[in-house]
């Protein structure tokens, strides 16, 4: 049985061991992911890869709580982070009320909040009230409409300094780690050096403190598009389709079920 990571061991990993984070949305995949992942993220990306929506914005707190409970059931020895969905942390009071719901209604170890300097006060309010927080800076999927799309960050000196300021503000507010998404690799490296807590990258190069991928992307199950930063470790969609096609053929020809499958 693997030893579950804690906030302390996650923070101590900086400079010692790259952290492995993978998303999961149900007990089945959480159980498969658990042996290898240090952290499981119940991402609001489930709204796209699981629910078929075009973005994450319509994910609800009830959805996140439901899927977090499923993941916690399947991976009892994993450190589990629940994404706070769009609209659930617009101010300190709402953020605390909704984060308390996550902690009371699931076994999640932490919540994740998108934003930098602008969200530091909210992060501080949560951490001051017993809520562990993972930050998220850089490309913010929940802000894609206001920013005119999904835009890579860190292309200018001004953006670099802003990202460093964001990371430092979230660290000072009490977050134990930060996801950094869609940031130029050389800039992400500097941001990682600017704080004492781990930066976990997605589309941010190798010189950070860990990596996170969406499981359906890395397993080749999500066919609509593949982001540049995704490496497919399995051609899952083809394998599944071939298996079901084989099942169809055997049903139609009478090859299945055989005697060994019959009571």
TrEMBL record:
Top EC class, one word: transferase
Catalyses which reaction? (6R)-5,10-methylene-5,6,7,8-tetrahydrofolate + 3-methyl-2-oxobutanoate + H2O = 2-dehydropantoate + (6S)-5,6,7,8-tetrahydrofolate
Q: How does the record describe its quaternary structure?
A: Homodecamer; pentamer of dimers.
Textual note on the cofactor = Binds 1 Mg(2+) ion per subunit.
Q: What does this protein do?
A: Catalyzes the reversible reaction in which hydroxymethyl group from 5,10-methylenetetrahydrofolate is transferred onto alpha-ketoisovalerate to form ketopantoate.
Where, by residue number, is the active site?
181
The record's EC number reads: 2.1.2.11
Lineage: superkingdom: Bacteria
GO cellular component term of the entry, any:
cytoplasm
Where is Mg(2+) annotated to bind?
44, 83, 114
What is the recorded name of this protein? 3-methyl-2-oxobutanoate hydroxymethyltransferase
* Protein family membership: Belongs to the PanB family.
